């Protein structure tokens, strides 16, 4: 066996898979960049870094990283609020935080985030992406907030119907979505070409053939688009709003990457993901992206699944896909100027729709309505407020729900008509269930002695202990015998023992 073959036994499979992933990633990198309000070349830079830098590091061997639709809304808001030069600093700081969290072995803790919160986050992002890109598909300017985007759609539709240019642009975007939807129904031989690439090529051909009055991608050139952050940009780190945006980037990018890794692990039988190392790989990639002033990167399930379906066996496929992106950006940047913006808007509308977990929401509603409500609330909060606060609201609801469910307590009262009333508390006595505990205890007969059995409690917090002591003192003050306590004693004066 030749030495090259023995050293790289899966080179043929990985080479073929890398070409497929490159063709899938190319239109997505450009589309995410344009939708984020940054030069198209910066999307390619992030894809290159995700392939070559993050791709060479340990963690998850088969998932592919690059610019993600899930961060489009957050990046657009950050650029609008702080300016493009600040984006590099924000991404750099987020990358360093990811490196630190990976070194501290915090990667595994992201698996503890409620799935309903993550799916609610993706649903909210998907809704905002769809609403915003519908304006872009019509060649109109979208409002700033998520609610305004959705509320303004009827008016935007009316405006589009009155404009020939807007109608042509909207038709091209709608045609792109139609190609993406119908592509999977075509023969397998045709589907060798990725649907997103086919949709962009067909839209570009139609725009050129019919001389449609639509806007195309603006091209600056790779070197001109790369703008490392300067001293002024680093000075913005003193802004509390910038710090909040950094935390949002870190939380959302890390959660999306590690949940993608878990999904990829279910699709193959190879080595499992090492979550802490994968978090460090993402951090290294984002650090480099920040230094280059590019978009943030995450692991992307669309590219990762394409990588697996194309037969990839090792990390070589994702590294090679980064090389092909680099060659394209260096040798054929002018090709980007031929791509009509409505086509990219159509790709993002389709991507946003796929982010909304319709089936999962229905399944959750049938089996776990509380989780379904958290999912919907998180999505609505992201649309109504913003990404970071929406996720925090979802996390807070998830923690509150878990705490409430963990505080189950049962009070069983046995009254034989004569002698003391016996009350048995079991479960977890926490402040969350304190009103219920006190209501039940205060309903016991005031003129009868009571025996309170606490041996069935797994947990008794300070608030409940204090409340039980107070209740016992009041009950004993009516002239009846002191409350007798078995199990964890409250205070000697209420236990009936010296």
TrEMBL record:
TM stretches of this protein: 15-35, 42-62, 82-104, 116-140, 160-183, 195-214, 234-253, 323-353, 373-400
Where's it found, cell-wise?
A: Membrane
Q: What domain of life is recorded for the organism?
A: Bacteria
Region of interest (Disordered), residue spans: 475-498
Give the residue range of the signal peptide: none
Q: What's the protein here called?
A: Sulfate transporter family protein
Task: Write out the GO cellular component annotations.
Answer: membrane
Q: How does it sit in the membrane?
A: Multi-pass membrane protein
- Ranges for domain SLC26A/SulP transporter: 11-378
Q: Which GO terms describe its biological process?
A: transmembrane transport
Task: Tell whether RNA-binding is among the UniProt keywords.
Answer: no
Q: Give the main location.
A: membrane
- The species this protein belongs to is Streptomyces capitiformicae
Q: What UniProt keywords apply to this chain's record, in alphabetical order?
A: Membrane, Transmembrane, Transmembrane helix
